[in-house]
Design the sequence.
């Protein structure tokens, strides 16, 4: 604390993306100074971030308990992403063969052979003491029922995968904190592919005027003409990651972009048009 970000000695494989303070969020720059109570976004691989977190949190937060009902592809990938020092993950799956497969593929997740949609099972597995319960069994009705039961027995936050759009207005009234629709996610992906220009997809950083962009670097784009440090990008734009040939990493100032690269960038709304011109053909 008290030193600008450039002097903190953070690993080059990790980047501070944004800083939130007193209700305001902005993209971090090298001269920013962190204060107690700030919330920051760290960008990098899970292992790299785990190595630097102690620099910002002398006392690591307690593990959060996450229970996932359903060991299909959604449940598996969610458990895989959450595995680590921050979460204690329990995965409930009714199919025995699938349980055996999940137990081999997941390193630190507790896989339980049971029906995660039944209240008695949820009580037996002490789901009421979990911080988060996620229902992703592959059946909308079962997901909603399981989430409602988990909330009723005391789970702090419950989430559900809900495919039918007409259920969207119902889940909130039932006490479900968040419902995710695969159809809407897929629609956003398809719309992203149909967009002209360099933007592949766009989302927003929660509670801010910062967009998270996935951008394809087009042939002859200005972004390919110089190393990153010399690109004419506004300070309100941060290149957080570069993906090339299925390999993603946090870039350095001396790295250079190539046509076909995919860039993940944080861009404030006020400079969106200016920043995106750098990645388009001839600045368009």
Sequence:
């Amino acid at each position: 604390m008290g030193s600008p970000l450039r002097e903190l000695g953070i690993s080059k494989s990790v980047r501070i993306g944004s800083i939130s303070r007193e209700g305001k969020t902005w993209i971090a720059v090298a001269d920013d100074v962190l204060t107690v109570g700030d919330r920051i976004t760290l960008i990098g691989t899970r292992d790299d971030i785990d190595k630097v977190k102690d620099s910002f949190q002398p006392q690591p937060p307690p593990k959060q308990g996450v229970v996932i009902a359903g060991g299909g592809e959604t449940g598996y990938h969610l458990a895989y992403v959450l595995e680590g020092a921050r979460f204690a993950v329990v995965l409930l799956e009714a199919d025995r063969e699938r349980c055996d497969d999940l137990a081999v593929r997941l390193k630190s997740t507790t896989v339980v052979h049971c029906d995660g949609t039944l209240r008695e099972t949820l009580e037996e597995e002490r789901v009421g003491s979990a911080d988060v319960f996620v229902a992703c069994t592959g059946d909308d009705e079962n997901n909603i029922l399981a989430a409602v039961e988990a909330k009723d027995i005391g789970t702090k936050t419950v989430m559900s995968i809900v495919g039918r759009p007409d259920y969207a207005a119902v889940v909130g009234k039932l006490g479900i904190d968040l419902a995710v629709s695969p159809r809407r996610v897929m629609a956003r992906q398809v719309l992203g592919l149909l967009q002209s220009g360099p933007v592949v997809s766009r989302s927003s950083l929660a509670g801010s005027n910062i967009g998270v962009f996935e951008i394809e670097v087009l042939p002859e784009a200005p972004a390919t003409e110089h190393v990153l440090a010399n690109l004419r990008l506004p300070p309100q734009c941060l290149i957080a990651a570069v993906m090339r040939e299925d390999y993603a990493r946090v870039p350095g100032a001396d790295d250079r972009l190539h046509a076909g690269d995919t860039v993940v960038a944080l861009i404030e709304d006020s400079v969106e048009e200016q920043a995106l011109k750098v990645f388009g053909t001839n600045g368009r």
About this structure: Helices lie at 46-52, 73-82, 96-105, 119-124, 140-152, 168-171, 182-194, 272-276. The chain has three domains: 5-55, 64-181, 187-283.
